[in-house]
Amino acid sequence: MVKKTKVCELLGIEYPIIQGGMGLIANAELAAAVSNAGGLGIISPNAGEPDWGKVADNLRNQIRKARSLTDKPFGVNFPIHQIGEDRSLIDIAIVEGVRVVTTGAGSPALHTHYLKEHGVKVLHVVASVRHATGAEKSGVDAVIAEGYESGGINSPDELTTFVLITQVVDAVRIPVIAAGGICDARGFAAALALGAEGVQMGTRFIATHECIAHQNYKKAIVAASDTATVITGRRLMPIRGLKNELTKEVQEKEGAGTPPQELLAILSPGLTEAAMLRGDIVHGQAMCGAGAGMIDKIVSAGDVVRSIIKGYDRIVAGL
Ligand SMILES: Cc1cc2nc3c(=O)[nH]c(=O)nc-3n(C[C@H](O)[C@H](O)[C@H](O)COP(=O)(O)O)c2cc1C
Fold first, then answer.
1. What's residue 52's pLDDT?
2. Structure confidence by residue, pLDDT tens digits, 137-156
3. Which residue CA neighbors atom 3 of ligand 1 most closely?
């Protein structure tokens, strides 16, 4: 049986499985389904709402919707490169009673103290030992150590989950949550064996009934093979996504030494919306982790959590 870890105690959840924040697609229904199954669901402020001007109302609505669907804890993700120093969205989460926040893609020094003063637990995403120890010094409650198998924005350090977790666990005293390439009970058991106190998964939760992602995108994840993803934008902001016409064009231009400014002109923000909400997975930016090849079915988010918990005993018994 999966024992309760420090992450379970910290967050008041049954199983140490977190559904990662995912810009545009981590919606209330998904978060509530994960929380109802005993994990921790996370809402992204712009879930289903590409217009950042409407994000405040959207966040409030998403939190209220999730609250109507579950009485279990859930959290909100704030990508720091998007919110900057502005605390208006954070204040909405606090007023609405959210007690867990994940942050990433920026300095944890910016908002951690403020969040903790308001009784909010802070989990910060890191991708190196240096960033993990820095986050610990900033006072975060736990770090989410994310290897570059993961979908979405990646660190230029490009450390794999396997080597990252082991070293971060040795370097910090706060709990470590493993992320990147974890899609099933095997990855979950391996992460715990490396010393993590829990896991965060993104890609696996996209291919679920509750996720607001477009059906074409979910189907593309199910159809993906082991080599279906690629990192592009290494000189801008590295992003792992499904290989398609867009990533081909960007890779060709990168190979030809095209200046980053010209690449930026191709990578408009609307491309993620095009792929992830409108289903243009050929020309859009379909963020996706390297673990997609392990996902062979669209299932309910609760079943993702339950199958990991069920599979864990069999795996451990077989070791
Ligand atoms: C489509 C997509 C969007 C993401 N957006 C965010 C985000 O807005 N904020 C964030 O902290 N992490 C984001 N992530 C990272 C996830 O929260 C999670 O850490 C990651 O997906 C774990 O790796 P996996 O995809 O291999 O499971 C995103 C991941 C994906 C796949």
1. 93
2. 999 999 999 999 999 999 99
3. 22
- The closest-lying atom of ligand 1 relative to the alpha carbon of residue 82 is 8
Q: Identify the domain containing residue 222 by its residue range.
A: 215-291
Q: Does residue 193 sit in the same domain as residue 229?
A: no
Judge if pTM exceeds 0.90. Answer: yes
For residue 104, what is the domain's CATH number? 3.20.20.70
User: Which atom of ligand 1 lies nearest, measured to the CA of 20?
Assistant: 17
CA of 317 to the centre of ligand 1 (A): 31
Q: Residue 185 has which token pair?
A: 């009970």
Instruction: Give the residue, out of 126, 150, 285, with the most ligand 1 atoms within 8 A of its beta carbon, to mutate for a pocket test.
Output: 150
Q: Nearest to residue 41, comparing CAs of 186, 152, 205, 203?
A: 205
Residue 1 lies in a domain: no
For range 11-22, the mean pLDDT: 98
Split into its structural domains, the chain has a count of: 2
pLDDT, averaged across the chain: 96
Answer yes or no: are the C-beta atoms of 73 and 40 closer than 8 Å.
yes
Q: What are the DSSP calls for 261-318, one per residue?
A: HHHHHHS-THHHHHHHTT--TTTS--B--GGGGG----B-HHHHHHHHHHHHHHHHHT
Ligand 1 centroid to Cα of residue 203, in Å, is 7
